[in-house]
Amino acid sequence: MRRVWAAQWSLDNKFIISGSDDYSVRIWKANASAPLKHLYLREKKKLEYNTKLRERFGEFEEIKKINNQRMIPKYIKTAQRKKKVMANSRIRKLKNQQANTKRTVERPTIKKDVIVQNVS
Questions:
Q1: CA-atom Rg of the chain in angstroms
Q2: pTM of the model
């Protein structure tokens, strides 16, 4: 999948449909942890109870950590870390150039393209 050109919510708000420039359409779950299968009454009540607990005790630090914690694969974490280090070193290099040269060093502008747009 390459660049995403369009995204749309399904009518029941359970899925997100996206289309990309390589002519592929993907269907994503809006709530990634929600199961797709039919739940038994006991399972449904357990899920509702757990969400109510998260809502009720969400202001506690331990619960905030659990709610914000995401299991990200190791290679993605290392890539994020490397990207952050490279961005920081680029900024540090520009600051050093500006501090140690008489002429002004222009910052390169980053062009941000609009990647996602809603389809009516």
A1: 22
A2: 0.40
